[in-house]
């Protein structure tokens, strides 16, 4: 069940970053905070590399096993599978909105709106997983299921040659260090 703990931890990390970006955008919009474009870029990178490309693939093998054992979770699992599959399109919208804003500061509102949509989607996604799926994983999957699902996830990561060794915990700490108080320990300029 180590995977379940990791999934819950990742949900918390994602919720923190989403909250931080939302807070910063509100402050920038109100003229109380100078935008840190590098920090926004790093945060969107974190959402792409960590949430979209690593977190959902860790869930997929577990969700597929649960579908075989828990018919009452079928609707939620089908919806979540569609949402996982839409990850590339979802993050592309956010990346494009950020790039447009970097090229033209007048596009701030459009970026803020794109981010709000993204954050709102994630709130619902995580709530659905935590209410309809994670408790059932706990009761319906056995140790062999957990081990097999984790092995599939690791094989998937290796086959896609993702930046598997990227230090996400370190990046998370850096993001928090640069985000303004009270959500972070900054503001402090983000540097690579
Ligand atoms: Fe997910
Ligand atoms: Fe999740």
From TrEMBL:
Phylogenetic placement of the source organism: Bacteria, Pseudomonadati, Pseudomonadota, Betaproteobacteria, Rhodocyclales
Gene3D superfamilies: nmb1532 protein domain like
Spans traversing the lipid bilayer: none
Annotated ranges, domain Hemerythrin-like: 4-137
Native organism: Zoogloea ramigera
Recorded GO CC terms: plasma membrane
InterPro entries the record matches: Hemerythrin-like
One Pfam family it belongs to: Hemerythrin
The name this protein goes by in its record: Hemerythrin-like domain-containing protein
């Amino acid at each position: 069940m180590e995977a379940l703990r990791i999934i819950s931890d990742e949900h918390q990390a994602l919720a923190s970053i989403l909250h931080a970006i939302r807070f910063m955008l509100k402050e920038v919009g109100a003229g109380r905070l100078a935008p840190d474009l590098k920090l926004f870029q790093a945060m969107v990178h974190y959402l792409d590399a960590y949430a979209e490309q690593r977190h959902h693939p860790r869930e997929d093998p577990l969700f597929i096993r649960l579908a075989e054992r828990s018919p009452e979770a079928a609707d939620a699992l089908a919806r979540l599978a569609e949402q996982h599959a839409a990850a590339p399109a979802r993050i592309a919208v956010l990346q494009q909105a950020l790039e447009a804003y970097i090229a033209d500061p007048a596009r701030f509102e459009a970026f803020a709106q794109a981010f709000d949509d993204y954050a709102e989607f994630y709130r619902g996604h995580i709530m659905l997983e935590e209410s309809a799926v994670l408790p059932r994983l706990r009761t319906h999957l056995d140790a062999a299921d957990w081990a097999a699902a984790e092995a599939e996830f690791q094989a998937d990561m290796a086959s896609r040659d993702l930046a598997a060794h990227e230090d996400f915990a370190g990046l998370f700490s850096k993001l928090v260090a640069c985000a303004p108080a009270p959500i972070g320990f900054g503001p402090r300029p983000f540097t690579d």
